[in-house]
Write a structure and sequence with these properties.
about 625 residues, 7-stranded antiparallel beta sheet
């Protein structure tokens, strides 16, 4: 057989090599379950302390939130490294190990190299299959990242390693944008496989200039690029010729645009993808960039008015700034959805229970795609620091909006069970085999994934009140963690011979503490906001030592009820039975059973007559 077509590559060959008689494998690409991701890229010259920062939210409703780990190691000749597809859990093959591999925790390594990604998909004609190595099989985007982190020390080494792996073994995913950072440089690398035309992929990479920032969110963003500036731009030799050979592009080299050729922007690409770049640029860009001019583009109305790849910043950014940019919901922009009828009673930007596009009476409508989203598996802010020995990966499970970030040094060699994914990368069968707590279909209080889900989903149910309380807790937690990292950095610098142990012990212990604290937080939140009230401690109250305050509803919700059912619920201007005299009845709404203050002796009071305005 010269080629064999299969939709689940190597499903019949798990754990073994293919027979040498098979010259190649044609693999059908699958992106099922991929919901998209968001990355922010901040070079050293744009950060407050001269470090580099990249963020990454791994967004998919089927991704389990755990921290993967591959220990550093020396490998014997002939040893193989198993390759599993992250999106569908299929076994893609096994490739030869190099002599020595580096310690990798999450998406950073012991040499301060970090990599994130977003999937842009690209042309249908290139997503129909991939030609893989006849013996070792293919490699897809996620293991491509982790294998590269095991083998490279710098961003430029990573780009070369990614290229070599794809061209050697074949690339079985669709189009990807990679964020690649070391302590000195930040690069955006965009790649797309060659489908069933030939083995490998074409790509282009751009270094983010100091004083500027970049972002990407499931839409290829590199367009035209210089071909004679190797310090700042790199590309595969056939990035243009491949497109021309297969009729994808017919113009000149000078007019070639990677994005316009391999991932032409569509309404969906603008509204759901580029729109997430817009609020970050709008928040940090220098005034002369005039980001508001691109509103019609991210609305999906004017696809020719594309945003620039990089924008100059008005001020230098910090890791903490980046955390909060990853919690963005378009606040204060045209895309802000907290104040329409879909926001519900508690002014939520989320639209749970529906996809991004829905239909009513033959017309289609959208729900905005947020940076901080409910279907995230986990998120990270990765900080590469030229003045320190190790990078710090600030890791959090689930939605970045309500996710507490735990600092893991890149040299960390142990991860507590509540966070750990070993090298399972979230695959349920592997987690069960290794005895790890929880999977996507098995709840466990011992898993940080599920604890964070509990807190976030409770916040979704009463966004304005509970969401604000969670964010207050995040501020306190992350401030404490920044101080703790600062103190630990000093210890590492003082005891360099024990630096890896110090870094590991710190990361391990802090992860265990936050698992315990977030479990307690859920109980505190549930107690405080149970039944649609806010419980407020009142030491003067004799029975329960508390007061109960109603949370109030958003004005849009009230207006909608009045518009559709106002007559049914309207209180008459002149209430029958009302009388003004000394023999008038007590207003029933003042009774405790009705939410008022008058109560039988010994009951806990309610304050229902006066709303606390928590809905924004």
């Amino acid at each position: 057989l010269d080629q064999v077509t299969c939709s689940i590559c190597f499903s019949s060959f798990i754990g073994i090599l293919l027979p040498t008689s098979m010259r190649s494998f044609l693999v059908t690409i699958s992106v099922l379950g991929v919901s998209g991701c968001s990355n922010l890229l901040i070079p050293a010259g744009s950060s407050k302390d001269g470090s580099t920062i990249i963020s990454y939210s791994a967004d998919s409703s089927t991704t389990y939130g755990d921290v993967a780990h591959w220990a550093a190691g020396k490998h014997a000749k002939g040893e193989l490294r198993e390759i599993w597809d992250w999106d569908n859990g299929e076994h893609l093959g096994a490739i030869p190990e190099v002599e020595y591999t580096y310690n990798v925790v999450g998406n950073t390594n012991e040499h301060q190299l970090s990599i994130g990604e977003t999937t842009f998909g690209g042309l249908e004609v290139l997503s129909g299959g991939a030609i893989c190595d006849k013996l070792y099989g293919c490699i897809s985007y996620a293991p491509l990242i982790w294998v590269t982190l095991q083998r490279a020390k710098t961003a430029k080494q990573a780009i070369k390693t990614i290229d070599r792996l794809m061209q050697t073994y074949g690339y079985s995913s669709s189009g990807e944008s990679f964020s690649i950072a070391d302590p000195n440089e930040v690069w955006l690398m965009e790649i797309i496989g060659k489908g069933n035309f030939s083995k490998g992929a074409v790509w282009v990479a751009a270094k983010v200039p100091d004083g500027q920032v970049c972002a990407h969110a499931n839409q290829a963003r590199i367009r035209k690029f210089p071909m004679d500036e190797a310090e700042n731009w790199l590309y595969s030799e056939d990035v243009i010729s491949f497109a021309r050979e297969h009729g994808i592009y017919k113009g000149t080299d000078e007019d070639f645009s990677f994005s316009d050729t391999y991932d032409p922007v569509t309404f969906e690409g603008a509204r759901f993808c580029e729109a997430r770049v817009f609020p970050f640029f709008n928040s940090v860009a220098a005034p002369e960039e005039k980001i508001e001019q691109y509103l019609d583009y991210v609305q999906g109305y004017n696809l020719t008015n594309r945003m620039p790849l990089f924008v100059k910043t008005r001020q230098r950014l910090t890791v903490n700034d980046t955390m909060w940019h990853m919690r963005n919901h378009y606040e204060g922009t045209w895309l802000d959805s907290r104040f329409d009828i879909g926001a519900g009673k508690f002014s939520s930007p989320y639209r749970l229970g529906l996809g991004l596009e829905w239909e009513y009476k033959g017309k289609k409508y959208v729900n905005e795609r947020l940076i901080g989203t409910q279907f995230a598996g986990w998120n990270v802010i990765m900080n590469q620091r030229p003045k320190e020995k190790y990078s710090v990966m600030w890791w959090g499970p689930d939605d970045s909006t309500f996710s507490p970030h735990t600092p893991f040094y890149g040299a960390t060699t142990r991860v507590p069970a509540s966070f750990s994914g070993l090298n399972c990368t979230g695959m349920s069968w592997c987690r069960e085999k290794e005895g790890l707590p929880g999977t996507m279909t098995k709840f466990s209080l011992k898993s940080m994934h599920w604890i964070t889900q509990m807190v976030a989903n409770y916040a979704y149910s009463s966004y304005a009140a509970v969401g604000a309380a969670v964010k207050d807790e995040l501020v306190k937690h992350e401030a404490a963690m920044f101080k703790a990292v600062e103190d630990t950095d000093k210890k590492i610098a003082e005891f360099l011979n024990a630096s890896m142990k110090i870094a590991t012990d710190f990361s391990y212990q802090e992860a265990e503490k936050i698992h315990e604290r977030w479990t307690e937080l859920y109980g505190e939140l549930f107690m405080t906001y149970v039944d649609g009230y806010k419980t407020v401690v009142d030491p003067n109250e004799k029975y329960c030592g508390c007061q109960k305050q109603t949370l109030g509803w958003g004005e849009e919700e009230k207006a909608a009820i009045v518009a559709r059912a106002g007559e049914k619920y309207h209180v008459p201007d002149k209430k029958p039975g009302s009388q003004k005299s000394k023999f008038a009845s007590i207003n029933k709404l003042s009774l405790r059973a009705m939410g008022g203050k008058i109560r039988r002796s010994g009951d806990c009071p309610d304050i229902g007559a006066k709303e606390e305005q928590l809905v924004v």
